[in-house]
Amino acid sequence: MFGLTLHQSITASIGIVTSFLALYTGYKQWWEGPKIALNIGDAIDLVRSVGGQVNKIHLACSFHNAANKPGSITKIILVLLDGASEHLFNWLQFYEYKGGHVASPVSKPCPIPVLGKSTAFQGIEFITDRPLRIHQGT
User: Fold this and answer.
1) Within the chain, how many helices (H) and strands (E) appear?
2) Cβ partners under 8 Å of residue 122, min gap 6
3) What is d(CA 109, CA 94) in angstroms, rounded to the nearest whole number?
4) Phi and psi at residue 15, in whole multiples of 5°?
5) Beta bridge partners of 125
6) Is 91 in contact with 51 (CB distance < 8 Å)?
7) Tell me: the pLDDT tens digits for 19-42?
8) pLDDT for 87-106, tens place per residue?
């Protein structure tokens, strides 16, 4: 390799590979930001009011961070499209089910930490100011 002895060529090759690995590791550990994906659970619970309208939705969310750097979720808005109209459901509180379909509030919204290379599960209740009428079968 460029008039070098075999020993010098091997040493230079190892040095180049080591430098590349050090740069790649530095990028993954310090410069790359979190990559958080939202996976929706297997059920969406529509909370109906007395008039049959829906103003709350319970959603089981799993947040997966594929990067090494930890991150956090600070705000979530659920958007439902009904033809030409748009319904915004804001993040109201965390909940958990205590047997059957009885949801119990856990806390008000706060940032959801998602560590690097890990998953965080959270039940989130969304609410809207404009109730939505959902007919069975739609």
Assistant:
1) 1, 8
2) 60, 61, 63, 94, 112
3) 6
4) -65, -40
5) 58, 93
6) no
7) 888 888 888 777 778 889 888 877
8) 889 998 998 888 777 788 89
The Cα–Cα gap between 57 and 131 comes to: 11
Asked whether 137 and 61 are in contact (CB, 8 A), the reply is no
- The neighbour count for residue 34, using CB atoms within 10 Å, is 16
Which of 92, 111, 113 lies closest to 103 in space, CA to CA?
A: 92
DSSP states of 103-127: EEEEE----EEE-TTEEEEEEEEEE
Give pTM, 2 decimals.
Answer: 0.69
Task: Of 16-20, 105-109, 130-134, give the lowest mean pLDDT range.
Answer: 130-134
Token pair, residue 115, equals: 């560590």
What is the C-alpha separation between 28 and 19, in angstroms, rounded? 14
